[in-house]
Write a structure and sequence with these properties.
The protein contains ten helices and twelve strands. The chain is an alpha/beta fold. It has one domain: TIM Barrel, CATH 3.20.20. It is globular.
């Protein structure tokens, strides 16, 4: 199994999207140290799309962030997808794959990320599927804490207890989405900093930052379609103080502004990281 320090990631990153390709071909912003890609959106593409991706993957580190593995779902684990992802990662020398700690399919794709019941049985079920995914990929993977809006009908533990139990049982890494913590803290009424304080530092390998939609004072929707707000920036700073300045990526999935506007937010990540020069991100380079 690879170790975090062998992944080649450091600094601040940006999601690699086709809408940004023309601008990225002209110039990659200086603040961008790495890119993230959804493998499902690129595996089957050849021709110009494949050549475009290759031109960047040969120059910059990439991370794979999956969309459809449905690690907590009732359907059999999609081992064929994992095999294809493994080949894709090898072809582009991608060292890290992450997925959502949730599920998105039953008999068919549900087009949303749904919460797994926080139970001991679910911990064992999900951890076994993560272990199988790691066996197929031949590398440790990272699971991302997911945003959710309705609690599962049966819960035996808290969200933080569930996350800690899963990553320990599966012996996997944690992909920490800071905005998801903030969104859930508002929607479900808990202290986001205390939540982050309880996460296992040694498991955190990679962070996400994103914007959300303010539906009501007690309802935020995780959209990845807006600028990051000040309380989430503050929470990122506090996260670095607690756990070290891990590699951190800006997500923007729709309402995508010009590259220079996104670059300012990526640069803001880098500015906060610079406050922690001896933190863990410097050891990952």
């Amino acid at each position: 199994m690879k170790t975090p320090s062998s992944l080649g990631l450091h600094g601040a990153g940006l999601g690699f999207r086709r809408e940004l390709l023309d601008a990225l071909k002209v110039q990659v912003p200086k603040a961008v140290d790495f890119f993230e890609i959804a493998p499902e959106n690129w595996i089957d593409f050849g021709g110009a799309s494949a050549r475009d991706l290759r031109a960047f993957s040969e120059r910059y580190p990439f991370v794979c962030h999956g969309l459809s593995l449905s690690i907590g779902g009732p359907s059999p684990l999609d081992e064929m997808l994992l095999t294809r992802i493994k080949s894709f990662m090898k072809a582009h020398d991608i060292q890290l794959y992450s997925e959502h700690l949730s599920y998105c399919s039953d008999d068919g794709h549900l087009y949303d990320l749904l919460p797994i019941p926080f139970t001991e049985d679910a911990v064992k079920y999900v951890a076994a599927r993560i272990k199988r995914a790691q066996d197929i990929l031949e590398t440790r993977i990272a699971m991302e804490n997911a945003s959710f809006y309705v609690m599962a009908p049966i819960n035996e533990m808290s969200e933080i207890e569930f996350i800690r139990a899963v990553v320990e049982e599966a012996d996997c890494w944690l992909h920490l989405d800071v905005n998801n913590v903030y969104v859930n803290s508002v929607n479900h009424g808990y202290d986001p900093l205390e939540f982050i304080r309880q996460l296992p530092t040694e498991r955190i390998v990679y962070l996400h930052m994103a914007g959300h939609y303010h539906e009501a004072d007690d309802l935020l929707v995780d959209t990845h379609g807006a600028d990051v707000i000040d309380p989430v920036w503050q929470l990122l700073d506090q996260t670095y103080a607690l756990h070290g300045a891990c590699p951190t990526l800006l997500e923007r999935d729709f309402n995508i502004p010009p590259l220079d506007e996104l670059a300012r937010e990526v640069a803001h990540i880098a500015q906060i990281q610079a406050k922690y020069p001896h933190a863990r991100h410097a050891q990952r380079a």
